[in-house]
Each structure stands twice: as C-alpha cells, then as structure tokens.
Amino acid sequence: MAERGFILTPTYRVVGGRPEVHLYGVLEGGEPALIVDDRQAPYFFIRAADAGPAAGLAGGARIVPADLVTFAGEPVARIEIARPADVPPLRARLGDAGIECFEADLRFAYRYLIDRGVKGGFRVEGPFERRSGVGRVYRNPRLEPADFAPRLRVLSLDIETSLDASRAYSIALAGAGGERVLLIGRSPVAGADVFPDERALLAEFLAHVRRVDPDVLTGWNVCEFDLAVLLRRCRRYGLRCALGRTEDEVEIRRDQNFTREPRAILCGRQVL
Fold it and tell me: 43-104 sits in which CATH class?
C-alpha cells in the first residue's frame, strides 16, 4: 500500500563505489522513514555540439544524447558520471577547455528529486524493513510527488556559554517533549534540571533529543553558534554529537555561494 510522506533530509552515500540517494522523511502517520535508491547516476549537460571535444576530457564518463535544449534552443548531450564527487573536477576541466556545462551545480539528491517532480511531499510504495531510530527503510521503491503537508514535531533550543564559548553552562529546550532547562549547578534550582558538570549536561541533552525524536531542530543562529559549540564540547568529552536519526555526528557546512551561510546536516531531521 502506498504511503504519503514529506522529505526532511535529502542526501546520498557511496556504497561499494556506487552512489545511493538517501531521502530521510516522515510519513503521514508520524513514523520516520528512509528511502534508499541506487538506480540513478549523477549527470549534467553540455551542448551537443561540444560532445566530440568533451569526450577526450571526460575520462570514464558517458556522453549520451538528450531530448532537451538550452534556453537558446541548442540541443544538449548528457554526461553521466560514476560518483557525485567526480562532477566538480570534470566540470572544471570542461570549463577550462571552453565547454559550458549546464546543471552541473545541482546536488545529486536534489537532481533525483527534480527528475521525479518531488518538491517535499511524496507517495512511496514498496516493501520495507524497520530500523531502530530511522523507522521504515524502503529500497528502490516507487516514488512520486504528492500534495501533502505534514504536522512536524519541532524542538527549539538555546544554549548559554562562557564569553568565549569555551564552556556550556545551560541548554533551554521547548516544543517536542515540553519545556526544560538543563543547567550546571551545585544545588537544586527551581524550574531547572541541575547537573554536576558539563559532560553530564551534554549527555542529557543528547538523550533528550533521542527520546523526544523531533523532525525539526530550530533556534536563533542555531547553525552558526549553538550546534557548532555543542559539537566542539561533545568532542571535548568523547561524546558523539549524533542529533539526527542515525549515529552520524552533526556536520556544519558553509555554503559555497556568495552568502557563505552555515547549514547543519542531520540525517533524518531538518535544521532551521
């Protein structure tokens, strides 16, 4: 039976040298899900007229015809690559040779979604297994767009630190799981859960996120400051700052466009 859902984290992994699209989402009933698909190859386009010169620079990439044209009406050819990481160097080689590339800046998982017309809501059908933390896992299912807006579980967080952010003193939480204040202290504090040291504070925060299992983490400047500090402090104490639905640590990336804005990558949750 087909299920409707909404995508939270589109990403990919390379398994055995082959890229797999991994779409983490939440189903209509609230259960998390992971859609794995290894049937798509990374690709981008060049003008069909450039296919000959490009062949000598493409290495092991395949150049195949495409039923598309540029905005100027010029036919294009499709270049298929083995792995997403091979796209930037090939794009650079072609650019240095004066060959213009089209849609070579699209992230692999987003290319997969665009090809299927999926903008957020989806309908999935196929066999699945259940994995702890991740929920349902579909492999190479039927996937199509659906008009669906989910009711997401949101957890807001705010941390207080020393002036140089070298030590966390408290973490305030609100939303999924109710309101809590986690605080380092030597005696009870009304309205707060008190912990003897920073390591115990961080360990309880990680446990709270796993327990309440939000779909969205949010907060003011949460990527640039809160999550970055939490990641550093967890590493200081040998704690794995796994805030997603897998055991992967949170990853802070800075976009390569002109905004240079940071974004946090959490498998199975969205960060706003």
Answer: alpha beta
Summarize pLDDT for 116-154 with one digit per residue, the tens. Answer: 999 999 999 999 999 999 999 999 999 999 999 899 999
Residue 181 CB neighbour total at 10 angstroms = 16
> How far out from the chain centre does Cα 56 lie?
35
Per-domain residue ranges of the chain: 3-39+111-145, 43-104, 154-271
Give tens-digit pLDDT for 157-182.
Answer: 999 999 999 999 999 999 999 999 99
Classify domain 154-271 at the CATH topology level.
Nucleotidyltransferase; domain 5 (3.30.420)
Strands 270-271 and 216-218 come out as parallel
Rounded CA separation 257/34 (Å): 29
Q: Which fold has domain 3-39+111-145?
A: OB fold (Dihydrolipoamide Acetyltransferase, E2P) (2.40.50)
Question: Does an H or E element contain 198, and which?
Answer: helix 198-212
Give me 265's structure tokens: 């990558």
Q: State the Cα angle at 223 between 136 and 132, rounded to 5°.
A: 20
Q: Is 53 helix (H, G, I), strand (E, B) or coil?
A: helix
Cα dihedral value 174, 178, 183, 189, nearest 10: 130
